[in-house]
């Protein structure tokens, strides 16, 4: 959360001449409601089920850069899909940077509480090993412009993403 997946993903897609898709935006467009609304109504399990269905479809497409929601990797089937159907890049971002980037963002249902830093730390502890399990590359994304991060990804993966 707050790693810049959507921003960097758009830049990477532009660099590579591919189509950019954000799975959270896709879910919102299909349902006609916001992610926080889905969380409020269906809880995280309901959202994750919707997300898994969308990821199954989107990972079957060619020529795309796909930004997933931060928790997509918490579902084993999603990790399997992502790993089998594409090149996976983990944008590693320390909790301190995530906190700065997400502070006051009401559209992040998992951070709505009294201690967002503790929540981000708990999410990092749970998710970091999962990201690393499925990632083809781990890219530090805490500093620099999104375009520069996208260039580092393209250079790191070289012909794998083209």
Can you walk through the features of this model?
The structure is a single chain. With 162 residues, the protein is mainly α. It has one domain: P-loop containing nucleotide triphosphate hydrolases (Rossmann fold, 3-Layer(aba) Sandwich), CATH 3.40.50. It is built from seven helices and four strands; from the N terminus they run αβααβαβααβα. It has helices spanning 5-16, 23-31, 35-58, 76-85, 95-102, 116-134, 146-157; strands at 19-22, 64-67, 89-92, 137-140. It has a two-stranded parallel ribbon with strand order 1-2. A two-stranded parallel ribbon has the order 3-4. It starts with a helix and ends in a 5-residue tail after the last helix.
Summary tags:
162 residues; mainly alpha; Rossmann fold; two-stranded parallel ribbon; two-stranded parallel sheet; 7 helices; 58% helix; globular
Query: What can be said about the biggest beta sheet?
Result: 2 strands, parallel
User: Whole-number average pLDDT?
Assistant: 88
Q: CATH first level: which class?
A: Alpha Beta
> Would you tell me the structural class of the helices and strands?
mainly alpha
Widest sheet, order of strands: 1-2
Globally, the shape reads globular
Overall helicity: 55-70%
